[in-house]
Amino acid sequence: MQETRRDFLKLSLSAASWALLPGCATLQQCAEIIRNRPMRRDVNTLSADAALLTAYRSAVTRMRELPESDPRNWRRQASIHNDFCPHGNWLFLPWHRAYLYYFERICRKLSGMADFALPYWNWTKDPSVPGSFWGPGNVLNDTTRQITPSDVASPAAVGSTVIQSILDDSNFLTFGSQTLTASQSQRERTGTGRLEGTPHNYIHGFINGNMGNFMSPLDPIFWLHHNNIERLWVDWNLGRDHANPNDDDWLNRRFTEFCDEDGHPVEVTVRETLLYPIFAYRFDDSATTGTAGLQTGQRWKQINRDTTPAEQKENLRLAQRGGRIGLNLLRRTAAPAAAVATLERAAVFPLRSTEVPRAAGGDERLLLSFSQVSMAHTGDFTALVFLNLPQATAQTPITDPHFVGSFSFFDHQHGNAPESGNFLLDATAALKRLGLPGDAVEVNLVLAPFPGRTPRTRDLQIGAVELRAARDVIERSP
Ligand code: C2O
Q1: Which of 14, 137, 277, 455 has the most CB atoms at less than 10 Å from its CB?
Q2: What is the pTM (predicted TM-score) of this model?
Q3: CA distance linking residue 421 with residue 373, whole number of Å
Q4: Which ligand 1 atom minimizes the distance to the CA of 86?
């Protein structure tokens, strides 16, 4: 008996996911469609006149020409982000995945390129905005940007050491932002994880202009920036086999704000988005080579090549296999008071050394948590965090052993109440390197302005700083 698509998709879930594989009736056809799914490519491997960039330019032009009454209109698409995007909670990754997926379908239809796939901008490998996105009259240019084509994104936010360490973080909550219950609004910030708080937020502020606010999808580079975030999540989850949550509050979360390539409203659950990287697109191999310094290896290749039906089934199983994810707080020590960092003066948070938890080794981690942090600084500065380095400045290199990490801001500017956020950094390696705790441990937080720009805000308020000893809870589903 011939295996049907039903056999193949037994592992997968709803009727909605079948729509990802139109024309798939037999196992052979399904396998064929998956094998030929469009390839999302590194934009810096494409010449400005490559068919893919020509198609992207024509899709952008068509979307700008559509009347505002059409939900595929360029500004209407950006408004979806402005009105609904979740930030600072665990919907950040799947929401933006779905947003890109439908945007890609719209581009495919409007450009007429049947295998159109959104390119990505690998800012680790190429830390300047790609050349094909500049120049007068270029529809991919955005004249509101506050950088030049030669400005370089900071290695404190996008460098390979920092990105590698984020990809090594096996806990979804610290990698990809924190838990939101089913009854909480998707706009609530519960805690910003490292992928979002470090490279993601940084790139918004670095480019600024449209990219510096929630209408950021007006800048055509937005979509390539987020496609790189998407690539890193696929790499983390499937390439490196770290578990996504299997919590129903996450999997069953439903989004109704997107529209398909015909402008019809669609509904999508987080659960369905887990299939996209297996059914709807794949990534090229460039992450495994060259200066990015990211060695994703065999698994990454298998996911993105998956030539045999057996491999495809296995990938599908892995994509749907999550785990119960938690973070158990074991001990903590808090700095005595709130503080303000200014562009002139670092904030210092002393931690009583007798109470500074030691990593007991094994799977225990030491996390630095910054809470009640003022957020209205997107285009103004980045926060660099050091331990026991009172002389740290914005120029201190990140190779300094006292460097812990950095975080940046991405603020929703049209609420009336000023927003506050929470950020987490992993200080395990830095504490170990420095042999701390010694006589005293202090956290030094330095503000680093973006080059060539007068900041609008000069002070960062930080409500509380804590060092937390925590243990990951990661129970993989079978
Ligand atoms: Cu919802 Cu990078 O933004």
Answers
A1: 277
A2: 0.95
A3: 5
A4: 1
